[in-house]
Design brief:
There is one protein chain. By secondary structure, the chain is mainly α. It has a single domain (2-61), classed as Orthogonal Bundle (434 Repressor (Amino-terminal Domain)), CATH 1.10.260.40. The chain has 4 helices and 2 strands, in the order βααααβ. The chain has helices at 5-11, 16-23, 27-34, 42-52; strands at residues 2-3, 60-61. Strands 1-2 form a two-stranded antiparallel ribbon. Helix 2 crosses helix 3 (27-34). The longest helix is centred in the C-terminal third of the chain and has 11 residues, at 42-52. It is globular. This is Transcriptional regulator, PBSX family. GO terms for molecular function: DNA binding.
């Protein structure tokens, strides 16, 4: 899975810590998601969707390997 979380976060001028606090996770979790080391749960993806004001498919995409 690929994502544009870092870009979406930058658009809103949020640090990893800011975003983490908004959705109730650690900064390390945001870092792992951005680095494609962790695939978030549906609940987490929906919380990100609320923060970014966009559908989940706008910032998460399936890769050829998925």
């Amino acid at each position: 899975m690929e994502n544009t979380i870092k870009v979406e976060r930058a658009i809103l001028s949020l640090t990893q810590d800011d975003l983490a606090k908004r959705i109730g996770v650690s900064r390390q979790t945001i870092n792992s998601i951005e680095a494609n080391r962790y695939v978030p749960s549906t609940v987490l993806a929906l919380k990100l969707s609320e923060v970014f004001g966009k559908p989940v498919n706008d910032f998460f995409k399936l890769s050829e390997n998925d």
